[in-house]
Design a protein that fits this description.
This is WW domain-containing protein. This protein is an alpha/beta fold and 1341 residues long. It is 53% helix and 9% strand. α4 (84-131) packs parallel to α7 (190-199), α19 (518-527) runs parallel beside α20 (546-555) and α22 runs parallel beside α23.
Length: 1341
């Protein structure tokens, strides 16, 4: 949320507020509360609007479709949203793209076939035309043509099927999915991975690192379908166990890049063996770092099979030792990068492994990481430098503390292409080693880490050249990264030399260097002004001040990361300089800067940082930074991009942190004991990129919409102009056509009239002649019609005569036909009856035959059943015999197989045993050679050390003799001077004693008078303190009364209201506008405290669930002492601080939340933590101490007053002070440091000791030691020894009759407390004497 939501942040509800404000807003209410409800509705509307703006931090539910179309998908930024649904969408896109490719290929094939068929069709048509046969007739009658067509159709179908299969295969390689990178997709499962594998058979790159939900099932699907894989990244897939990796090794034989970082369960022996056996010859990159179960045997398997390896990372694999590394180096001769860093078991890698690496892959090795290998010495480094010096570019030897100048010299002499050297923690290296490295590698050395080298200094001029950092600054001018952390001897001379020599530095580390100077460090920053991006000045102490930071900020304007941890002199001026000059800062560590205040932090709030802005600001342990500074920081323009804000042990409160939560949308608020502030959410960079994409997408859509609107408006405007022009053109054309038409009309009308008149005259003559000819024709037709009618009448008469004759003949023929039909019917009836009788006879005969057939079939079925039973019995006998025979054969085969397996196993074992013995002999020979070489080196080193030791012993002997002689001379001189001093002192003492007796009485009188005046002043001070205390108590009482009234008035601002939509009450604060469903704590405090339902006198403190009553503690113990009532659940009404506990609204059984037994104990007190349930660890007066072993705390309980606290009570502290004083007095008496009776034996007391009570402003019991004043006799009593305010204050009194002369000073045995003899044991001290008694004693003295 940006600044636009600051107004809404003030009305954000609590955690128990409604989830949906729209549904719960009180829109319906009574008329009397209409104004209040309208205000509440407006507040809830603002809350709902703010919640709607911040509902989704990521503006997408799934990956946008436009990112899923390419054939190489890179969704590492979007992997937060990748799920099985995303994989289904990818599958649909890939299938659609491949289908379109296949359809295009088939359409192209169809067009080619059509073009190829055209000549054949033309030849056929020409042949048919030549024979005179149509195409339809030839297609139905030519058998040969039909056969050829069928064969051609079958051939064409086969070609199309082959072409479709080939097109589908080509679609996989041309438009199919080839690369998928989804690192960090924690929502991806086996279903989604199987979809990807099935739709991408030509997949070459697969990155699913961090997919914790991927199991071996999904990986087997990948191995089954994606056999062309070349790149596989499974880093962090913790659910894999091995079978999936084995399937990958068996199927994917083209793998070149495999990353198994952190897959401890998957990297086991048999799975790794299957992977290396199947894909070992092709694998070039293998990362198995942080696999805790990887052993030497597994690494030996990888080394034997993966002979093409160029990159191998087995860092932080604690079980890897020399044996596995030796095997890898012997077989993998093309290794370029080898990482063996470790943090556990640093003694498992020694020089033996380094020697093997140098011999096996020294010709190709470019980078070697040996961080944390403590047993690596100069011998291994020298051998490595000799063998791999021509190619080695990076070597990391951090915390290898056995590396000395010899190792540095070997690297400098033989490794001429080194670009990065890390020897941090090599405490035996000195200026000589650094000088050699700088002189030999100055041209190409870019990264040098020499931190924690305590022997490194600025260097000196040896005549032949400089040493140390001066030599490095002169020679290594190409350095980009220089780390000198912990080199505490670096001073301004080194800084000046570095400023002159290094001008391309990008990073410099000077943490723990307390001798820096502002001017020289500023010059160093200015020298690399255009490239310096990272500086570390942590723990540099007082040398880092505002002046140094100002010079640094002016000299490094491109600075991105700065660490000023524990620099207490850094303050507001430095912050202002950083905010003014270093606008590219992304990380600023100010932890432990005690000089920072709210005003200093305000300097960062007004800065507009350059992209990407200030991301990480660490202000831990800055006590001066409080709520005001946090408010300025979050409200300023410079805090919009902060994702990490550490305010641990600052003065900021939780309320201020909660109110600032909305200003950090990409961070999570944490209030742990180890962190207090805002911590970035997981993968916040990807979240920012997704949000930026969403904003860009919305901007593009808006821009496109605006452009379309602009184009539409422009098109509409043009269309309107064209319409207007067209309309004007039409009007002009219409008028022009009208004028031309009217002229042509007049012309043609006149012409028509003339022609019509001439045609009328001609037609009248023609029609007359035509009419006369027609009349003649009509007369002839009429005559012909009359002749036709006469002929018709004659014909009708003749036809009637012929018809009468024909009818008579037909009547006779009908009579003869009837007679014939009668005779025929009689004959037919006779034949039918005979036929009917024969049919009935055949029916009865067939029925008899059917009965006979049924009987015959029944007999056949009975015989068949009998035969079946006999056959089954015989079959069972044969089956049993066959099974016995088969079992005998199986047992025989098993016995033979066991014999054969035993024989084969023994033979294989003998072969493997011989191989193992041969390998052991070779290994023993190598080990003997290495041990021999190592023993020779040890002998040489021991001889050299022996010679050096003898030389040192000789030098020490000479020096010792010289010092003894010088000491004897010095002793003689000092002894003579001391004797002279004693003589002078004795003379002075005699003179002083002679003068002191004369004024001793006057001194004692003045002392007593001063003590009396001091006592009067003390009494006046006590009187003033008492009056001030009474006034303070009265003001506190009045203030508490007023504070309670104000608090109750503030609590009363909570109002209970009713929501008509949800049908439940809610609570509204009229001051803050806060809304809650549950009753607030303020209203709970205003509720009247119930009385005990049993005694009806004391306030109730417990509530019983079954009895539904309130009880005080004693009544509850009495009522629920035994029986079933002892098992009744109960809860406390108030916590340990007397506040009402919120258990929710509603009925007791349904809406209440019962606390656990431990919480009830904490609320009701610690009654179960003290006696008689537990024995106290110690009794201190009235207080008892109980130790809590779980939390390492002590609890103090007073059984008399019933008080309990985790803080140490005042009486306990006083007792501890008294005990410490007694112990100190006893020790002082044992060592003779108190009073000494030696004054009677001509000596002076060593110290003057007195006991004095504490200040009256702290009414506590205590004892303090006060030295005697040097300007008065040592009486052993100070002026502050007479104090009395509290009854337990310790006061010393002087016994009467004591001679206070300087020659007879009283000893400690002559002093006592009032009425108590002096004793070294102080436990018997009594209260002080009253003032009157003290005055009497002083008057007597």
């Amino acid at each position: 949320m940006g600044k636009g939501s600051a107004a809404s942040a003030q009305v954000v509800p609590a955690a128990d507020s409604p989830q949906s404000y729209r549904s719960s807003s009180p829109s319906k209410s009574t008329t009397t509360n209409r104004t209040k409800n309208s205000h509440v509705a407006s507040v809830l509307h603002a809350i709902a609007k703010a919640d709607e703006d911040n509902r989704h931090e990521i503006p997408f539910d799934d990956v946008p479709p436009e990112l899923l179309c390419p054939d190489r998908l890179d969704l590492r930024v979007w992997s937060l949203l990748v799920s099985n649904k995303t994989c289904a969408t990818i599958e649909n896109y890939v299938t659609e793209r491949e289908s379109k490719f296949v359809e295009d290929a088939m359409a192209q094939l169809a067009e080619e076939q059509r073009q190829a068929d055209l000549p054949r069709k033309k030849a056929k048509k020409a042949s048919d035309d030549k024979r005179g046969v149509s195409a339809s007739m030839a297609a139905t009658t030519d058998a040969r043509w039909l056969a050829r067509q069928e064969a051609y159709a079958l051939q064409r179908a086969k070609v199309e099927a082959d072409a479709r299969a080939g097109a589908l295969e080509r679609s996989h390689s041309e438009v199919g999915l080839k690369a998928v990178r989804m690192g960090g997709a924690s929502k991806l499962g086996d279903i989604g991975l199987s979809r990807i594998a099935k739709c991408a058979p030509r997949l070459e790159v697969l990155d699913i690192s961090g997919a914790i939900d991927i199991h071996d099932v999904g990986l087997r699907e990948v191995a089954l379908h994606c056999v062309h894989l070349r790149y596989l990244d499974l880093s962090g897939c913790s659910s894999l166990t091995g079978p999936g990796l084995a399937a990958i090794g068996e199927r994917c034989n083209q793998l070149k890049h495999v990353s198994l970082r952190g897959c401890s369960r998957a990297v086991n022996g048999w799975a790794l063996a299957a992977l290396s056996k199947g894909s070992g010859e092709a694998i070039e990159y293998l990362d198995m770092s942080h696999c805790q179960l990887l052993s030497d045997h597994d690494l030996m398997t990888v080394g034997k099979d993966c002979t093409s390896l160029t990159y191998l990372d087995v860092s932080h694999c604690k079980q890897i030792g020399d044996q596995g590394v030796v095997e890898v180096s012997n077989h993998c001769s093309r290794l370029e990068v080898l990482k063996l860093a470790r943090t556990e078991f640093p003694n498992k890698l020694t020089d033996v492994a380094i020697l093997s690496i140098a011999e096996g892959c020294g010709k190709t090795l470019k980078e070697l990481d040996l961080n944390g290998c403590e047993l690596v010495t100069d011998v291994g480094v020298s051998w490595l430098a000799h063998q791999a010096g021509a190619t080695l570019e990076k070597i990391l030897l951090r915390n290898c503390d056995r590396i000395t100048n010899a190792g540095c010299r070997a690297l400098a002499d033989h490794c001429h292409v080194l670009q990065k050297v890390d020897i941090r923690g090599a405490r035996r290296c000195t200026d000589v080693g650094i000088r050699v490295l700088g002189a030999a590698l100055g041209e190409q050395l870019q990264h040098l880490d020499i931190g924690q080298m305590h022997l490194l200094t600025d260097g000196v001029d040896r005549g032949f050249g400089f040493e140390g950092i001066l030599a490095l600054a002169r020679d290594a001018r190409a350095l980009r990264v220089l780390r000198l952390d912990g080199c505490f001897q670096v001073s301004k001379r080194s800084l000046a030399a570095l400023a002159k020599g290094l001008t391309t530095l990008q990073e410099i580390g000077l943490a723990g260097c307390p001798r820096l100077h502002a001017k020289e460090f500023g010059d160093l920053c200015k020298a690399s002004k255009d490239s310096l991006e990272k500086i570390s000045l942590a723990c540099c102490g007082d040398c880092v001040s505002d002046d140094l930071v100002v010079n640094m900020a002016r000299g490094a304007p491109r600075l991105k990361q700065l660490s000023l941890r524990d620099c207490e002199r850094f303050g507001q001026r430095g912050c202002k300089a950083l905010a003014t000059n270093c606008l590219r800062l992304t990380r600023l560590d100010l932890t432990g800067c005690a000089g920072l205040t709210d005003e200093a932090v305000n300097e960062f709030s007004t800065v507009r940082w350059k992209p990407p802005g200030l991301r990480h600001l660490l202000l831990a342990h800055c006590r001066g930074v409080g709520d005001i500074g946090l408010a300025w920081l979050v409200e300023g323009s410079g805090s919009n991009d902060i994702v990490t804000l550490n305010l641990t042990k600052c003065s900021c409160t939780s309320a201020a942190l909660k109110s600032s939560r909305d200003y950090f949308p990409h961070s999570e608020m944490k209030r742990d004991p180890g962190f207090f502030g805002f911590w970035p959410k997981p993968r916040w960079e990807h979240r920012l990129q997704i949000q930026a994409f969403g904003r860009d997408r919305r901007g593009i859509v808006k821009t496109q919409a605006s452009y379309r609107g602009y184009c539409g408006r422009r098109y509409t405007k043009g269309l309107r102009a064209w319409k207007a022009l067209e309309k004007a053109t039409l009007v002009l054309q219409k008028r022009w056509r009208g004028s031309k038409g009217r002229a042509r009309y007049r012309y043609f009308r006149a012409k028509f009239i003339r022609e019509t008149h001439a045609a009328t005259v001609i037609e009248s003559g023609v029609r007359g002649s035509f009419a006369r000819g027609k009349a003649r024709r009509l007369r002839k037709v009429d005559q012909w019609r009359r002749a036709c009618r006469a002929a018709i009448l004659v014909q009708a008469a003749y036809r009637s005569l012929v018809a009468r004759r024909y009818a008579t003949l037909r009547l006779k023929e009908a009579q003869i036909l009837r007679e014939k039909r009668l005779g025929a019917s009689i004959e037919i009836q006779r034949i039918y009856r005979g036929l009917r009788g024969r049919q009935r006879f055949r029916f009865f005969e067939a029925e008899r035959q059917r009965k006979l057939m049924r009987r015959f079939r029944a007999c056949q079925k009975i015989q068949m059943w009998r035969r079946c039973l006999l056959a089954k019995w015989r079959t069972d006998l044969l089956r049993e015999h066959f099974e016995r025979r088969q079992a005998l054969e199986r047992a025989t085969a098993i016995h033979i197989q066991a014999k054969i397996r035993t024989f084969c196993t023994r033979r294989v074992y003998r072969i493997m045993r011989r191989k193992y013995d041969a390998r052991m002999r070779i290994a023993l020979f190598c080990q003997c050679a290495c041990r021999l070489r190592k023993s020779q080196i040890v002998v040489y080193v021991a001889a050299a050390e022996g010679r050096h030791r003898k030389e040192v012993n000789a030098v020490c002997c000479i020096q010792r003799m010289y010092r003894c002689r010088a000491a004897r001379d010095e002793y003689a001189k000092r002894k003579q001077a001391y004797m002279e001093y004693l003589a002078a002192r004795l003379d002075a003492t005699i003179t002083i004693q002679a003068h002191s007796r004369t004024w001793a009485a006057l001194v004692i009188f003045r002392q007593l008078k001063a003590e009396k005046d001091e006592y009067d002043a003390r009494m006046a001070e006590v009187t003033r303190w008492a009056s001030s205390t009474i006034q303070a108590l009265y003001r506190g009482h009045c203030g508490r009364i007023r504070a309670v009234a104000v608090r109750d008035e503030k609590r009363a601002r909570w109002k209970e209201m009713f929501d008509e939509d949800s049908r439940r009450p809610f609570f509204y604060n009229q001051i803050t506008g806060e809304i809650r469903w549950r009753r607030p704590q303020d209203l709970l405090e205003l509720m009247p405290r119930p009385l005990c339902g049993n005694c009806e006198y004391f306030e109730a403190s417990l509530e019983c669930s079954v009895c539904q009553e309130f009880f005080c503690a004693e009544c509850h113990q009495t009522v629920h002492f035994g029986g079933k009532r002892a098992k009744h659940p109960f809860r406390a009404l108030y916590d340990a601080f007397g506040k009402r506990v919120d258990y929710g609204d509603g009925d007791f059984d349904l809406g209440s939340m019962w606390p656990s037994e431990i919480i009830q104990d904490d609320i009701a007190g610690i009654l179960l933590r003290i006696a008689p349930h537990r024995d106290p660890a110690e009794k201190i007066g009235l207080w008892e101490r109980y130790d809590d072993d779980e939390y390492q705390k002590s609890y103090y309980y007073n059984p008399v007053s019933g008080e309990g606290t985790y803080d140490k009570p005042q009486a306990v502290r006083e007792h501890e002070q008294l005990t410490a004083l007694q112990r100190a007095q006893q020790q002082s008496q044992e060592h003779g440091l108190e009073y000494d009776d030696y004054y009677q034996g001509h000596a002076r007391p060593m110290t003057g000791v007195s006991f004095a009570g504490l200040s009256p402003t702290r009414p506590t019991t205590g004892i303090s030691w006060a030295p005697s004043s040097p300007n008065r006799p040592r009486t052993g009593l100070s002026q502050k020894s007479i104090e009395s305010h509290h009854s337990n204050t310790t006061v010393l009194s002087r016994k009467e009759g004591v001679d206070y002369s300087p020659m007879n000073t009283p000893t400690a045995s002559e002093y006592s407390r009032a009425g108590t003899p002096a004793s070294p044991d102080l436990r018997g001290w009594t209260p002080p004497a009253a003032p009157r008694e003290l005055e009497a004693e002083q008057g007597g003295l």
